């Protein structure tokens, strides 16, 4: 039987901690605005509905009825995949599959560590 190795890809993810409703919502839909489907007068209701509860995630597998079949429980990661799709992932699977990476600088497309190594050594005058 043929075997396969997962390609190394970089993903974005957020941990659903049960109270970080704004962070999770913004990750999945962008920051809420007055014209969004979660207008400011409904935000408190939205938070009460989600805080500490499971979060239903619409995925590519939901089909034409758009009924969310995937649920992120408190403690699960919500991942944005290579095609922009969202899906929940249990913490043990996330830990076995993904390692954190250093964040890239948006202006240089290098990591902060790479930027530090690229700096010339400090002179005696700069060190004092």
Mean pLDDT: 78
Strand content: 5-15%
Instruction: State the end-to-end CA separation.
Output: 64 Å
Integer-rounded radius of gyration: 20 Å
Q: How many DSSP H or I helices? A: 5
Strand order of the largest sheet: 1-4-5
SS-based structural class?
A: alpha+beta
Gross morphology is globular
| Low-pLDDT regions | none
* Record field, number of beta strands: 5
Largest sheet, in brief, is: 3 strands, antiparallel
How many individual domains? 1
What portion of residues is helical? 25-40%
Description of the structure:
There is one protein chain. The protein is an alpha+beta fold and 128 residues long. The chain has one domain (12-102). It has five helices and five strands. It has helices spanning 21-29, 40-50, 91-97, 112-118, 124-127; strands spanning 12-15, 55-57, 70-72, 77-80, 86-89. The strands form two sheets. It has a three-stranded antiparallel β-sheet. Strands 2-3 form a two-stranded antiparallel ribbon. Strand 4 (77-80) and strand 5 form a beta hairpin. The chain is globular.
